Amino acid sequence: MTDRELALRAWESLFRAQHELFVAMASDFRDTAITQGEYDVLLTVVRAPDMTARLRDVTGNMLISQPSVSRLVDRMVARDLLTKTIDPDDGRGAILTATDAGARAFRQVATSHGRSIAENMARLDDDELRALLALTQKLRGISGT
Questions:
Q1: In whole angstroms, what is the distance from residue 70 CA to residue 39 CA?
Q2: Counting CB atoms within 10 angstroms of each CB, which of 52, 94, 113, 142 has the fewest?
């Protein structure tokens, strides 16, 4: 059995590291066309084939509740960052597609945000990054690739 005290210390350290990096990178979204939440939605949509994804897939990748994602998506539709249509395979679901403006806004932020991520993660060497990836995937129940 895992040492409980060690598990608690490791969890706290992981949580604090993630939070501190998240806060440090929040500045990547200052004075940009999209918020951090909108970027997160667009990350899933823009990476999908034809820049189109199901709302449930976007919701599954987000760290906020489904009703919050739905409200965020509706605001993004109103801002012409996304289009939203009924899922032809499941009338209860929705299909999201990035508009040209949404894809452009995502790409503008993605460049600087990607650089920021690389700079913050540069504290670790490649072997440590591979180990971190493997460990976090294991914690998430994802088999490594």
A1: 15
A2: 142
Q: Are 45 and 53 in contact (CB under 8 A)?
A: yes
Q: How many domains does the chain have?
A: 1
**Residues spanned by the domain of 120:** 4-134
Structural tokens at position 11: 């969890």
pLDDT tens across 82-92, in order? 999 999 988 88
78 within domain boundaries: yes
